[in-house]
Design a protein that fits this description.
The chain has 317 residues and is α/β, with parallel strands linked by helices. Helix content is 49%, strand content 15%. The chain contains 14 helices and ten strands. The chain has a five-stranded parallel beta sheet, with helices on both faces. A three-stranded mixed beta sheet has the order 8-9-10. The chain has a two-stranded antiparallel ribbon with strand order 4-5. Strand 9 and strand 10 form a beta hairpin. Helix 2 packs across helix 4 and helix 12 packs across helix 13. The termini are far apart.
Length: 317
Protein backbone atom coordinates (compact mmCIF):
# COMPACT_ATOMS: atom_id res chain seq x y z
CA UNK A 1 0.00 0.00 0.00
CA UNK A 2 1.27 3.48 -0.85
CA UNK A 3 2.28 5.86 1.90
CA UNK A 4 -0.42 8.24 3.03
CA UNK A 5 -0.14 11.67 1.40
CA UNK A 6 -0.26 13.24 4.85
CA UNK A 7 3.28 12.01 5.47
CA UNK A 8 4.61 14.31 2.78
CA UNK A 9 4.60 18.06 3.44
CA UNK A 10 4.19 18.94 -0.24
CA UNK A 11 1.29 16.53 -0.65
CA UNK A 12 -0.45 18.00 2.38
CA UNK A 13 -0.09 21.51 0.96
CA UNK A 14 -1.50 20.40 -2.37
CA UNK A 15 -4.37 18.47 -0.83
CA UNK A 16 -5.46 21.52 1.15
CA UNK A 17 -4.71 24.08 -1.55
CA UNK A 18 -8.29 24.52 -2.78
CA UNK A 19 -9.63 24.91 0.75
CA UNK A 20 -6.91 27.44 1.52
CA UNK A 21 -7.73 29.46 -1.59
CA UNK A 22 -11.50 29.39 -1.03
CA UNK A 23 -10.95 30.93 2.39
CA UNK A 24 -9.14 33.88 0.81
CA UNK A 25 -10.65 34.30 -2.66
CA UNK A 26 -14.37 35.07 -2.67
CA UNK A 27 -16.84 35.02 -5.52
CA UNK A 28 -14.65 32.99 -7.90
CA UNK A 29 -15.41 29.40 -6.90
CA UNK A 30 -15.81 28.43 -10.58
CA UNK A 31 -12.14 29.17 -11.40
CA UNK A 32 -10.41 27.79 -8.31
CA UNK A 33 -10.70 24.05 -9.15
CA UNK A 34 -9.03 24.66 -12.51
CA UNK A 35 -6.29 26.76 -10.94
CA UNK A 36 -5.65 24.11 -8.30
CA UNK A 37 -5.65 21.28 -10.87
CA UNK A 38 -2.83 22.89 -12.85
CA UNK A 39 -0.88 23.78 -9.73
CA UNK A 40 -1.07 20.22 -8.44
CA UNK A 41 0.22 18.84 -11.73
CA UNK A 42 2.96 21.43 -11.81
CA UNK A 43 4.12 20.74 -8.27
CA UNK A 44 4.09 16.98 -8.82
CA UNK A 45 6.22 17.25 -11.95
CA UNK A 46 3.45 16.15 -14.31
CA UNK A 47 3.81 19.01 -16.79
CA UNK A 48 6.05 19.03 -19.87
CA UNK A 49 9.78 19.39 -19.36
CA UNK A 50 11.50 22.59 -20.43
CA UNK A 51 8.33 24.61 -19.97
CA UNK A 52 7.03 26.72 -17.09
CA UNK A 53 5.34 24.75 -14.31
CA UNK A 54 2.08 26.14 -15.62
CA UNK A 55 0.63 29.19 -17.33
CA UNK A 56 -2.60 31.13 -16.76
CA UNK A 57 -4.51 33.93 -18.42
CA UNK A 58 -6.80 35.59 -15.86
CA UNK A 59 -9.54 37.69 -17.48
CA UNK A 60 -12.24 39.88 -15.99
CA UNK A 61 -13.03 43.32 -14.53
CA UNK A 62 -10.66 45.16 -12.25
CA UNK A 63 -10.70 44.40 -8.54
CA UNK A 64 -12.21 40.90 -8.71
CA UNK A 65 -9.24 38.88 -7.42
CA UNK A 66 -7.05 38.07 -10.42
CA UNK A 67 -3.82 39.33 -8.85
CA UNK A 68 -4.91 38.16 -5.40
CA UNK A 69 -5.37 34.62 -6.72
CA UNK A 70 -1.80 34.56 -8.04
CA UNK A 71 -0.46 36.00 -4.79
CA UNK A 72 -2.44 33.52 -2.68
CA UNK A 73 -1.27 30.34 -4.40
CA UNK A 74 2.30 31.65 -4.65
CA UNK A 75 2.56 32.35 -0.93
CA UNK A 76 1.02 28.97 -0.11
CA UNK A 77 3.38 27.01 -2.36
CA UNK A 78 6.59 29.04 -2.11
CA UNK A 79 6.27 31.43 0.81
CA UNK A 80 6.26 35.25 0.84
CA UNK A 81 8.24 37.31 -1.63
CA UNK A 82 8.10 34.83 -4.50
CA UNK A 83 5.60 36.61 -6.74
CA UNK A 84 7.34 38.93 -9.21
CA UNK A 85 4.97 41.43 -10.77
CA UNK A 86 5.46 43.31 -14.03
CA UNK A 87 3.04 46.08 -14.99
CA UNK A 88 2.75 45.88 -18.76
CA UNK A 89 1.59 49.51 -18.97
CA UNK A 90 5.29 50.26 -18.43
CA UNK A 91 6.30 48.12 -21.43
CA UNK A 92 4.26 49.69 -24.25
CA UNK A 93 7.15 50.85 -26.47
CA UNK A 94 9.90 48.98 -28.28
CA UNK A 95 12.47 50.67 -26.05
CA UNK A 96 10.85 49.01 -23.03
CA UNK A 97 12.27 45.69 -24.21
CA UNK A 98 15.61 46.97 -22.90
CA UNK A 99 14.04 47.54 -19.48
CA UNK A 100 12.88 43.92 -19.35
CA UNK A 101 15.98 42.28 -20.81
CA UNK A 102 18.69 44.86 -20.11
CA UNK A 103 19.85 47.25 -22.78
CA UNK A 104 23.33 48.43 -21.87
CA UNK A 105 26.48 46.69 -20.77
CA UNK A 106 26.15 45.79 -17.12
CA UNK A 107 22.37 46.25 -17.00
CA UNK A 108 20.59 43.14 -15.74
CA UNK A 109 17.04 43.99 -16.80
CA UNK A 110 13.98 43.67 -14.57
CA UNK A 111 13.41 40.02 -15.47
CA UNK A 112 16.96 39.02 -14.49
CA UNK A 113 16.78 41.05 -11.28
CA UNK A 114 13.68 39.10 -10.28
CA UNK A 115 15.40 35.83 -11.22
CA UNK A 116 18.38 36.77 -9.05
CA UNK A 117 16.07 36.84 -6.01
CA UNK A 118 14.67 33.33 -6.56
CA UNK A 119 14.75 30.69 -9.28
CA UNK A 120 11.16 29.59 -8.64
CA UNK A 121 7.85 31.23 -7.88
CA UNK A 122 5.37 33.13 -10.05
CA UNK A 123 5.94 35.69 -12.80
CA UNK A 124 2.87 37.93 -13.01
CA UNK A 125 2.43 40.10 -16.10
CA UNK A 126 -0.44 42.52 -15.46
CA UNK A 127 -2.56 43.94 -18.29
CA UNK A 128 -0.80 41.87 -20.91
CA UNK A 129 -2.78 43.51 -23.74
CA UNK A 130 -0.78 46.74 -23.21
CA UNK A 131 2.63 45.15 -23.89
CA UNK A 132 4.53 46.05 -27.06
CA UNK A 133 4.61 43.39 -29.77
CA UNK A 134 8.36 42.86 -29.24
CA UNK A 135 7.70 42.17 -25.56
CA UNK A 136 5.03 39.64 -26.55
CA UNK A 137 7.70 37.81 -28.60
CA UNK A 138 9.59 37.21 -25.35
CA UNK A 139 6.51 35.62 -23.80
CA UNK A 140 6.25 33.19 -26.70
CA UNK A 141 9.80 32.08 -25.96
CA UNK A 142 9.06 31.73 -22.24
CA UNK A 143 5.90 29.65 -22.80
CA UNK A 144 7.53 27.44 -25.43
CA UNK A 145 10.85 26.67 -23.75
CA UNK A 146 10.83 28.30 -20.30
CA UNK A 147 13.95 30.17 -21.35
CA UNK A 148 14.74 33.75 -22.23
CA UNK A 149 18.00 35.24 -23.47
CA UNK A 150 18.99 38.54 -21.90
CA UNK A 151 20.69 41.39 -23.75
CA UNK A 152 24.09 40.37 -22.33
CA UNK A 153 23.72 36.85 -23.75
CA UNK A 154 22.80 35.19 -20.44
CA UNK A 155 20.01 32.61 -20.69
CA UNK A 156 17.57 32.33 -17.80
CA UNK A 157 15.92 28.99 -17.04
CA UNK A 158 12.34 29.82 -16.00
CA UNK A 159 11.09 26.24 -15.69
CA UNK A 160 10.70 26.70 -11.93
CA UNK A 161 8.06 29.41 -12.36
CA UNK A 162 4.37 29.68 -12.97
CA UNK A 163 3.51 32.36 -15.51
CA UNK A 164 0.34 34.42 -15.00
CA UNK A 165 -1.02 36.97 -17.44
CA UNK A 166 -3.92 39.21 -16.45
CA UNK A 167 -6.12 41.29 -18.72
CA UNK A 168 -9.18 43.51 -18.38
CA UNK A 169 -10.17 42.87 -22.01
CA UNK A 170 -13.91 42.20 -22.04
CA UNK A 171 -14.20 43.06 -18.36
CA UNK A 172 -16.57 45.95 -18.97
CA UNK A 173 -18.77 43.61 -20.99
CA UNK A 174 -19.20 41.39 -17.92
CA UNK A 175 -20.70 44.35 -16.11
CA UNK A 176 -22.98 45.23 -19.02
CA UNK A 177 -24.09 41.61 -19.50
CA UNK A 178 -24.70 40.99 -15.80
CA UNK A 179 -28.19 39.61 -16.43
CA UNK A 180 -26.91 36.98 -18.87
CA UNK A 181 -25.89 33.46 -17.90
CA UNK A 182 -22.25 33.34 -16.82
CA UNK A 183 -21.42 30.73 -19.49
CA UNK A 184 -22.57 33.24 -22.12
CA UNK A 185 -20.47 36.02 -20.61
CA UNK A 186 -17.46 33.70 -20.33
CA UNK A 187 -17.61 32.78 -24.03
CA UNK A 188 -17.90 36.44 -24.94
CA UNK A 189 -14.88 37.51 -22.87
CA UNK A 190 -12.72 34.63 -24.15
CA UNK A 191 -13.63 35.57 -27.73
CA UNK A 192 -12.72 39.21 -27.06
CA UNK A 193 -9.39 38.18 -25.50
CA UNK A 194 -8.56 35.93 -28.45
CA UNK A 195 -9.13 38.86 -30.79
CA UNK A 196 -7.11 41.31 -28.68
CA UNK A 197 -4.11 39.08 -28.03
CA UNK A 198 -1.86 37.45 -30.58
CA UNK A 199 -3.35 34.05 -31.53
CA UNK A 200 -0.06 32.22 -31.01
CA UNK A 201 0.24 33.66 -27.49
CA UNK A 202 -3.38 32.92 -26.59
CA UNK A 203 -3.01 29.33 -27.79
CA UNK A 204 0.12 28.66 -25.73
CA UNK A 205 -1.44 29.57 -22.35
CA UNK A 206 -2.56 26.44 -20.52
CA UNK A 207 -5.53 27.79 -18.56
CA UNK A 208 -7.66 30.74 -19.68
CA UNK A 209 -10.04 31.73 -16.88
CA UNK A 210 -12.74 34.39 -16.66
CA UNK A 211 -13.31 35.97 -13.25
CA UNK A 212 -16.83 37.12 -12.47
CA UNK A 213 -17.86 40.53 -11.13
CA UNK A 214 -18.22 40.68 -7.33
CA UNK A 215 -21.74 40.87 -5.93
CA UNK A 216 -22.59 42.94 -2.86
CA UNK A 217 -22.62 39.80 -0.69
CA UNK A 218 -19.16 38.80 -1.94
CA UNK A 219 -17.80 42.25 -1.21
CA UNK A 220 -19.30 42.04 2.28
CA UNK A 221 -17.37 38.80 2.89
CA UNK A 222 -14.21 40.37 1.47
CA UNK A 223 -14.67 43.40 3.72
CA UNK A 224 -14.74 41.11 6.77
CA UNK A 225 -11.53 39.42 5.64
CA UNK A 226 -9.90 42.79 5.02
CA UNK A 227 -11.02 44.09 8.41
CA UNK A 228 -9.63 41.02 10.17
CA UNK A 229 -6.35 41.52 8.35
CA UNK A 230 -6.19 45.23 9.17
CA UNK A 231 -6.87 44.60 12.88
CA UNK A 232 -4.11 42.00 12.90
CA UNK A 233 -1.74 44.50 11.25
CA UNK A 234 -2.61 47.11 13.87
CA UNK A 235 -2.04 44.62 16.69
CA UNK A 236 1.42 43.94 15.30
CA UNK A 237 2.01 47.71 15.48
CA UNK A 238 0.98 47.67 19.14
CA UNK A 239 -2.60 48.90 18.68
CA UNK A 240 -5.13 46.38 20.04
CA UNK A 241 -8.50 47.13 18.49
CA UNK A 242 -11.92 45.51 18.59
CA UNK A 243 -14.44 46.53 15.94
CA UNK A 244 -17.93 47.47 17.09
CA UNK A 245 -20.76 45.61 15.33
CA UNK A 246 -21.64 48.79 13.41
CA UNK A 247 -18.14 49.26 12.00
CA UNK A 248 -18.28 46.68 9.20
CA UNK A 249 -21.63 47.81 7.71
CA UNK A 250 -20.34 51.40 7.78
CA UNK A 251 -17.14 50.40 5.96
CA UNK A 252 -19.11 48.49 3.33
CA UNK A 253 -21.44 51.43 2.72
CA UNK A 254 -18.44 53.68 2.17
CA UNK A 255 -16.34 51.24 0.15
CA UNK A 256 -18.73 49.24 -2.04
CA UNK A 257 -18.35 49.85 -5.78
CA UNK A 258 -20.25 47.68 -8.27
CA UNK A 259 -17.79 48.27 -11.12
CA UNK A 260 -14.37 48.55 -9.47
CA UNK A 261 -14.65 45.46 -7.27
CA UNK A 262 -12.86 45.06 -3.96
CA UNK A 263 -10.05 47.55 -4.52
CA UNK A 264 -12.04 50.61 -3.36
CA UNK A 265 -13.23 48.57 -0.37
CA UNK A 266 -9.65 47.83 0.65
CA UNK A 267 -8.56 51.45 0.22
CA UNK A 268 -11.57 52.77 2.13
CA UNK A 269 -11.09 50.33 5.00
CA UNK A 270 -7.39 51.08 5.38
CA UNK A 271 -8.09 54.82 5.38
CA UNK A 272 -10.94 54.63 7.90
CA UNK A 273 -9.09 52.42 10.37
CA UNK A 274 -5.79 54.22 9.89
CA UNK A 275 -7.37 57.64 10.38
CA UNK A 276 -9.13 56.48 13.53
CA UNK A 277 -5.89 55.23 15.10
CA UNK A 278 -3.92 58.29 13.96
CA UNK A 279 -6.49 60.70 15.41
CA UNK A 280 -6.50 58.82 18.71
CA UNK A 281 -2.70 58.92 18.92
CA UNK A 282 -2.61 62.63 18.09
CA UNK A 283 -5.08 63.42 20.88
CA UNK A 284 -3.13 61.57 23.55
CA UNK A 285 -4.58 58.10 23.21
CA UNK A 286 -2.74 54.80 22.76
CA UNK A 287 -4.52 53.78 19.58
CA UNK A 288 -6.18 50.91 21.44
CA UNK A 289 -9.80 50.15 22.21
CA UNK A 290 -13.09 49.84 20.34
CA UNK A 291 -13.59 50.99 16.76
CA UNK A 292 -16.87 52.89 16.74
CA UNK A 293 -18.78 54.72 14.03
CA UNK A 294 -18.90 58.49 14.36
CA UNK A 295 -21.97 59.29 12.27
CA UNK A 296 -21.54 63.03 12.73
CA UNK A 297 -17.99 62.94 11.46
CA UNK A 298 -18.73 60.20 8.88
CA UNK A 299 -15.70 58.29 10.13
CA UNK A 300 -14.49 55.67 12.59
CA UNK A 301 -13.15 56.58 15.99
CA UNK A 302 -11.27 54.75 18.74
CA UNK A 303 -12.87 54.63 22.16
CA UNK A 304 -11.03 53.16 25.12
CA UNK A 305 -12.91 50.10 26.44
CA UNK A 306 -14.87 50.90 29.58
CA UNK A 307 -14.35 48.83 32.70
CA UNK A 308 -17.68 47.06 32.29
CA UNK A 309 -16.70 45.88 28.83
CA UNK A 310 -13.39 44.58 30.15
CA UNK A 311 -15.11 42.78 33.00
CA UNK A 312 -17.65 41.17 30.70
CA UNK A 313 -14.91 40.05 28.31
CA UNK A 314 -12.99 38.50 31.19
CA UNK A 315 -16.08 36.62 32.30
CA UNK A 316 -16.60 35.25 28.78
CA UNK A 317 -12.98 34.10 28.64
Amino acid sequence: MNAQPGSDEKAVKLLHLETYMRERIRGQDHVLPRVVSLLQRGELGLTKRNRPRGSFLFLGPTGVGKTETALTFTEHLFGPGRLFRFDMSEYQTQDSLGILLGGRVGERGTLAMSYDQAQSGTLLFDEIEKAHVRVLDIFLQILDAARVTMANGETLDLSGFYVVFTSNVGGADLLNLQHSAFATMERHVLARAQQALRPELFARVTEKLVFNRLSYDCQLEIAQLLLDGELKFMREKGHALRADSTALPFIVRRGFHPKLGARPMRDTLEKLVGDAVANDLLTGGAGCGRLLVDEAGNCLTVAAPIAADSTEENRQV
